[in-house]
From TrEMBL:
<keyword id="KW-0251">Elongation factor</keyword>
<dbReference type="GO" id="GO:0003746">
    <property type="term" value="F:translation elongation factor activity"/>
</dbReference>
<dbReference type="GO" id="GO:0070063">
    <property type="term" value="F:RNA polymerase binding"/>
</dbReference>
<feature type="domain" description="Transcription elongation factor GreA/GreB N-terminal">
    <location>
        <begin position="5"/>
        <end position="75"/>
    </location>
</feature>
<dbReference type="GO" id="GO:0032784">
    <property type="term" value="P:regulation of DNA-templated transcription elongation"/>
</dbReference>
<feature type="domain" description="Transcription elongation factor GreA/GreB C-terminal">
    <location>
        <begin position="86"/>
        <end position="157"/>
    </location>
</feature>
<dbReference type="GO" id="GO:0006354">
    <property type="term" value="P:DNA-templated transcription elongation"/>
</dbReference>
<dbReference type="GO" id="GO:0003677">
    <property type="term" value="F:DNA binding"/>
</dbReference>
<dbReference type="InterPro" id="IPR006358">
    <property type="entry name" value="Tscrpt_elong_fac_GreB"/>
</dbReference>
<dbReference type="InterPro" id="IPR036805">
    <property type="entry name" value="Tscrpt_elong_fac_GreA/B_N_sf"/>
</dbReference>
<keyword id="KW-0238">DNA-binding</keyword>
<dbReference type="InterPro" id="IPR036953">
    <property type="entry name" value="GreA/GreB_C_sf"/>
</dbReference>
<dbReference type="InterPro" id="IPR022691">
    <property type="entry name" value="Tscrpt_elong_fac_GreA/B_N"/>
</dbReference>
<keyword id="KW-0804">Transcription</keyword>
<protein>
    <recommendedName>
        <fullName>Transcription elongation factor GreB</fullName>
    </recommendedName>
</protein>
<dbReference type="Pfam" id="PF01272">
    <property type="entry name" value="GreA_GreB"/>
</dbReference>
<keyword id="KW-0805">Transcription regulation</keyword>
Length: 160
């Protein structure tokens, strides 16, 4: 990776919880099922065995990805942000477009982005355009729908 994987403490905890659940609970149960199915004889037509092996590969792939993301993670607590007058990692911004439509966005790690709930990844085009902005700043961003201009109305950080 050429850039740090910024993530909030809550986001890191969610990655770790998923890893732990897969590794300590789901994977051992699946290995047990595969063992049982393998003992039933012909594996070529054994649905439990075939599905189990496929699912085990999926789990192992996900575990590898989660481990890689956690190793690259740089946990940043937004509540500890010293410069609260500008939009940095973890900031919650209220922005308005040219039509005066307001949106509330929180700049989070790429692994915890969820556009439907207003959580946009730190490396998304809109987040990159808003980085370092202060209240009253105008920022232009190229989106799939075309170029838009946004004004920063408010910036808040979690209490710490």
């Amino acid at each position: 990776m050429d850039r740090p994987n910024y993530i909030t403490p809550a986001g890191y905890s969610a990655l770790k919880a998923e890893y732990d659940a897969l590794f300590a609970t789901e994977r051992p149960k699946l290995v047990e099922t595969i063992s049982w199915a393998a003992g039933n004889g012909d594996r070529s037509e054994n649905g439990d065995y075939i599905y189990g092996r496929k699912r085990l590969r999926e789990i192992d792939r996900r575990l590898g990805w989660l481990a890689k993301r956690m190793r690259a993670a740089k946990v940043v607590d937004p509540a500890q942000q010293p410069d609260r007058s500008r939009a940095w990692f973890g900031a919650t911004l209220t922005i308005a477009d040219e039509d005066d439509n307001q949106r509330v966005l929180t700049l989070v790690g790429d692994d915890e982005a969820e556009a439907a709930s207003g959580r946009i990844g730190w490396n998304a085009p809109l987040a990159r355009a808003l980085r370092g902005a202060a209240v009253g700043d105008l920022r232009r961003v190229m989106l799939p729908a075309g170029e838009r201009e946004y004004e920063v109305i408010a910036i808040t950080y979690p209490a710490g």
